[in-house]
């Protein structure tokens, strides 16, 4: 009799777990912001070309088999890939400007990419950098549970990456020259501190 009750309870619990998992939203959003005491040009240099990502990419610090392979370092379409746990994947830059960098992340398990972005704004402290990731888990039952845990699982890594970018930008003392035209069409060269 006790065995039968245990079997019924386990079956009901599994059905409940599966039903809730099918109902839960499978999309997630993670966002973190850091203030950096550096000019925004020093911040954008850390993120607008992929060859600099290896120095701050948070998943490099794990012993998970991540090894970044950068296939094209700069501009829209630049991409890198990695293998190992938790999932091999590929990242492609989709937009770069002095105010934002956007990218798609393709994991082998998902058919549609996760979207990531960096937004750069001037602030009283220097520069405010926000890293946002919008994603989706395609697993039918556990996807909703993973989406609920996404911030807890990856938020700390995103904060760690932002702090790495902060350290790099604040330590950067190299000369930066800006070239642009003013409203009269005169070419202007300006040094960034």
Gist of the model:
This protein is α+β, with helices and mostly antiparallel strands and 193 residues long.
What does this molecule look like?
31% of the residues lie in helices and 35% in strands. Strand 4 and strand 5 form a beta hairpin. It has a seven-stranded antiparallel β-sheet with strand order 1-7-6-5-4-3-2, covered by helices on one side. The chain has a two-stranded antiparallel sheet with strand order 8-9. The chain has helices at 2-23, 40-47, 143-171, and strands spanning 27-36, 69-72, 79-82, 89-96, 100-107, 114-123, 126-136, 176-181, 187-192. The chain has one domain: START domain (Alpha-D-Glucose-1,6-Bisphosphate, Chain A, domain 4). The chain has 193 residues and is of the alpha+beta class. Helix 2 crosses helix 3 (143-171).
What does the secondary structure layout of this molecule look like, with pairings?
Elements (H helix, E strand, L loop, with lengths): L1 H22 L3 E10 L3 H8 L21 E4 L6 E4 L6 E8 L3 E8 L6 E10 L2 E11 L6 H29 L4 E6 L5 E6 L1
Antiparallel strand pairs: 1-7, 2-3, 3-4, 4-5, 5-6, 6-7, 8-9
Helix pairs in contact: 2-3
CATH topology: Alpha-D-Glucose-1,6-Bisphosphate, Chain A, domain 4
Anisotropy-based shape: elongated
Q: How would you describe the oligomerization state of the chains in this entry?
A: single chain
User: Which spans of ≥5 residues are poorly predicted at pLDDT below 50?
Assistant: none
In terms of DSSP E residues, the strand content is 25-35%
| CATH homologous superfamily (4th level) name | START domain
| Largest beta-sheet details | 7 strands, antiparallel
Side-by-side strand order of the widest sheet = 1-7-6-5-4-3-2
Q: Which structural class should the secondary elements be placed in?
A: alpha+beta
Straight-line distance between termini: 78 Å
Fraction of residues in helix: 25-40%
CATH class bucket:
Alpha Beta
Number of E-type strands: 9
Mean pLDDT, all residues: 84
Radius of gyration: 22 Å
Along the chain, the helix and strand elements come as HEHEEEEEEHEE
Number of domains: 1
Give the helix tally.
Answer: 3
Identify the CATH architecture. 2-Layer Sandwich
